[in-house]
Design goal:
The chain has 6 helices and 6 strands, in the order βαααββαααβββ. With 165 residues, the protein is α+β, with helices and mostly antiparallel strands. It has a single domain, classed as Beta-Lactamase, CATH 3.30.450. It is globular, with a radius of gyration of 15 Å.
């Protein structure tokens, strides 16, 4: 079952996103911690800037994170950073694909266009089958960044998961 949550950047104090933020702050999941960090970086702005992101403050989660530069070519983003723990999965192929170059990292970033369209963070959870038949439950988050405060030109993201026996 695929789960997706759009997290609006300007929550009402009593709204569902505010409750989600409080829940995520107490939660131990990577995607929740990174969403909370991103929200704190906004400081009243629609989006934080790339320069606001501090790997030391992200801590060990930085190893599971990535930054995509989109510029004017959103359909072909470039990796500015790919954490070493997440990079291990960049070569893990999924089963049942016609194109065997599709990896877990591709699946984690495949909703990038939705972040641009909606202009807010996206949290995802799904189960995918690996090439060897094992099932992997993963969670991912895509967080928009903007150098001018209006146009999204970078995306901070993270993904991790576990083999589901």
């Amino acid at each position: 079952m695929t789960v997706e949550v759009l997290a609006r950047t300007k929550p009402r104090l009593d709204g569902p996103i505010e409750r989600l933020m409080k829940h995520q702050a107490a939660e131990r999941r990577l995607v929740g911690r990174l969403l909370t960090y991103w929200h704190d970086l906004c400081e009243g702005r629609a989006y934080p800037r790339l320069g606001d992101v501090d790997p030391h403050k992200v801590g060990t989660d930085w190893r599971w994170s990535f930054i995509l530069e989109t510029g004017n070519h959103r359909e072909f983003p470039n990796f500015v950073y790919l954490g070493p723990d997440l990079a291990k999965y960049s070569g893990v192929f999924l089963a049942g694909q016609d194109d065997f170059t599709l990896t877990l990292l591709d699946v984690a970033t495949h909703k990038l266009d939705r972040v641009f369209r909606e202009g807010c963070p996206l949290l995802m959870e799904d189960v995918v089958t690996l090439f060897d038949g094992q099932r992997l439950m993963y969670r991912a988050v895509l967080l928009p960044l903007s150098d001018n405060g209006e146009h999204i030109n970078y995306v901070l993201g993270a993904a991790n998961g576990r083999i589901n026996d």
